[in-house]
Amino acid sequence: MIKFIFNSYTFKWLLLLSLIFIAIAYVSSRIFDIKWGSNSSLPMINLNNVYKRPVSYDNLSKVNLVLFKKDMILVESNKKFVLRGSKKSSDYFDTLQIYYPEETFDRVNKIFLRFDGSASEDSIHIVISKSTEKNKFYHQIFYSTVSIQQLNQLSSDVEGFRLKPWELVSNELLINNDSLINNVFTYFNENINYLGLAECGTNCEIFKKLCQNFSVPCRLIGLQGGDEEETGFFNKVGYPMHVVCEIYSSKLQKWYVVDPSFGFRFSNKNDSNYLNAVELSNDYTFMVDDDIRQDSILLTKRSTVGRDYFKYYENVMFSYGNKDRIIDRIINFFYQRYNNHIYHYSSNYPLMKNGLYYLGIKTFLYFIILILYINSIMLIILKRLFTVKKPNNK
Predict the structure, then answer these.
(1) Pick from 131, 87, 124: which is nearest to 106 by CA?
(2) What is the rounded (10 degree) CA torsion for 207, 209, 214, 217?
């Protein structure tokens, strides 16, 4: 049977047609990427995607709220807690009754809970309002001092959701890790001749390694210059590229830039908070550059760098995720111009750098080729069916 199928006229045509369309898809994909002209990445619309606290410094209390029954709500937390009036000991979840309005239009349910290690109570106010329809009510969270992670859904990974105190840094460092940051600066300066410093990428890798040794959160940030027509990275025009670091300060509760190559960190003249890469990019693009102060904290400034040092870099790239996942390799095979592990922030973001547009337009190209392929197969099959001779009646 298999041999008959392989030797059949239709199978041979389908195999040939498949090879032709694979070649068409490959050539079309290559031409599309060449004409696109630039690598693209995921536009960073929400800054929280990259400016969250490091996990080891995230001591925030979070809860999931689930309407367990009509008059019962379940609270699941990432920390142990006790509900006011509850007779249970501290646990990661508990239930309590909620009340519905009777004669009045709405009713406020106040949930008070105290987390382990907290000196004061937190509260969640839930307003339940009557609808004009009988036995129909609306539930609304009116006020909460607790970060509510999910509504009407518990955590899929209980152990992953729970906050493990032994994975956090000490309480002193949760408040202020400047002592560790200063240790990094001191060690860097005292051993500057033995670190193997070179270009900016190498310098940042060395600085990041030092930060890891002193338990300071640190990451590499890519910077790229451009103008209104050419922005992004990997352009043939040769706009300036640079790599800097961002470290996390628990005292300031933010990430801020440190440049190991020139020894700078940055702040506004009227503000003691140091600036992250996005703030610097925006400030130098939309403000007067004299408002920016450069602190020389490292001894690597090898040339005169003026106040316009950062204004050339209006594009900021953040690496995220795991590059070696199978799904990422599949995406990169079909979408070679898409950097699926990079967030791209820019004060001037053109169409050609937007990975979402690239994915959408190229997917449409693949879809058109697939439709033509399916129609060609159907045409061959129908043609073969119409040319089949009827068997002789015996």
Answers:
(1) 131
(2) 80
Give yes or no for a contact between 376 and 17, defined as CB atoms under 8 angstroms apart: yes
What is the mean pLDDT for each group of 10 consecutive residues in the chain (394 residues)?
56 82 92 86 87 89 88 91 87 89 84 89 90 81 88 89 88 92 97 92 95 95 68 51 92 94 87 88 67 85 58 80 77 87 82 87 94 88 70 59
- Geometric angle at alpha carbon 51, from 47 and 55, rounded to 5°: 140
Question: Position 78: which residue type?
Answer: N
Cα of 281 vs its chain's centroid, Å: 19
Token pair of 275, please?
A: 């600036």
* Residues paired with 72 in a beta bridge: 69, 97
The three-state DSSP-derived secondary structure of the chain is: CHHHHHCCHHHHHHHHHHHHHHHHHHHHHHHHHHHHCCCEEEECCCHHHCCCCCHHHCCCCEEEEEEEECCEEEEEEEEEEEECCCCCCCEEEEEEECCCCCCCCEEEEEEEEEECCCCCCEEEEEEEEECCCCCCEEEEEEEECCEEEEECCCCCCHHHHCCCHHHCCCHHHHHCCHHHHHHHHHHHHHCHHHCCCCCHHHHHHHHHHHHHHCCCCEEEEEEECCCCCCCCCCCCCCCCEEEEEEEEECCCCEEEEEECCCCEEEEECCCCCECCHHHHHHHHHHCCHHHEEEEECCCCCCCCCCCCCCCCCCEEEEECCCCCCHHHHHHHHHCCCEEEEEEEEECCCCHHHEHHHHHHHHHHHHHHHHHHHHHHHHHHHHHHHHHCCCCCCC
Cα–Cα distance, 311 to 173 (Å, whole number)? 33
On whether the CB atoms of residues 17 and 377 are closer than 8 A, the answer is yes
Query: Is residue 313 within 8 Å of 223, Cβ to Cβ?
Result: yes
Q: What is the spatial distance between Cα 32 and Cα 23, in angstroms, rounded to a whole number?
A: 14
Sign of CA dihedral 205, 191, 217, 239: negative
